[in-house]
Amino acid sequence: MRPYGERWRAPYACDPWGSRGRLFPEAVSPTRSEFQRDRDRIIHSSAFRRLKHKTQVFVYHEGDHFRTRLTHTIEVSQIARALARSLGLDEDLAEALALSHDLGHTPFGHTGEDTLDECMAGFGGFDHNAQALRVVTRLERRYAEYDGLNLTWETLEGLVKHNGPLLDAGGQPTLRYAARGVPLAILEYNALQDLELATHAGGEAQAAAIADDIAYDAHDIDDGLRAGLFRIEELRAVPFLDGLLTEIDARYPTLDLSRRIHELTRRVITRFVEDVVAEGERRIAALSPQSAQDIRQAGDTMVCFSKGMTEADASIKRFLYAHMYRHPDVMRVRAQADSVLRDLFRRFKAEPELMPEEWQADLPKDDEPRLARRVADYIAGMTDRYAILEHRRLFDVTPDLR
């Protein structure tokens, strides 16, 4: 029975009452839809709480005003819900996907992922998207009857494929995974529950994915300016941002810097969201989908930027890469974080008894790939702060990460 007051959905939205279900069947809730239950399980997970102390670009102690994985995730969730509502998609599923999209990230931002990937080079590598799937299907241990969160097919599908298909029509890995193949964790789970890796995800996952891009652009501009990594006038090198700054200065010629920064970032979000809605409406109208499966099988992304805004997004990312992500101060901290995680990986792999007891359970020491994956799981789940504390416990000298 559908609850009273349920929001309208377009025919092409994923329907929680028509879900393909869960790996482990459960009784339907009398008060919440299936996607609402997924969202709530994600919010109450241990992995979600740890996002509070995981870095985006800066390490955790650099200031309370910079984004963490948690604040970033909340911002992505807000944008994803706005897009879903405007396009007639299921808001709860879009929110669940936004809230879960970073659960597989390591401490110390993308540095941690790069480091673990290199450490795991002989054991299948490390991929944060595959790790998120491991978290919600295996590593969360809260329920009496199964490991993981037992999320719906639609949420798992969206989590794995929010950036597009993993396989082409011939069953070969797509460009993202062409060189290395689809991560084993995804293939292993797909053997249990077919996630249709050769199709796009539903519209809700596409909304969450583009919301991630929008949030990144806006808050990295904000954080970079407030950290002094670049000046606001340098942003005029990006034509899209130059136009927004000209608009702000014409309307508020004496505005102080802090408010000027906020006026810029809020306009970035607004223009991107309005563009995605307009482009999404145009593409959906051309396709005229009558089901969520029509969206999946469209052969192209439906919820995305227009051609012009795609270039604006790319130009912002090019600027941030040069002026923020590769800034000498950031690169110095990245190098220190890299050394911390490499030290931890080598030490735990050589002496797994140094990990907490629950991480040693059922772990044969003569199975090196399994041992390496267990160590990677343990380290990937750490917060920045915990990784530093573990390093101090095990080593005489720990970098300051400043």
TrEMBL record:
* SMART domains per UniProt: HDc
Q: Which key words are in the record? A: Hydrolase
Presence of keyword Methyltransferase: no
Hydrolase is among the record's keywords: yes
- Give every HD domain span: 69-217
Which GO BP terms apply?
dGTP catabolic process
Citing just one GO molecular function, the answer is: dGTPase activity
The record's listing under SUPFAM superfamilies reads:
HD-domain/PDEase-like (SSF109604)
Entry's family note: Belongs to the dGTPase family. Type 2 subfamily.
Checking NCBIfam families in the record gives: dGTP_triPase (TIGR01353), PRK01286.1-1 (NF002326), PRK01286.1-3 (NF002328)
Record's protein name: Deoxyguanosinetriphosphate triphosphohydrolase-like protein
Source species of the chain: Microvirga lotononidis
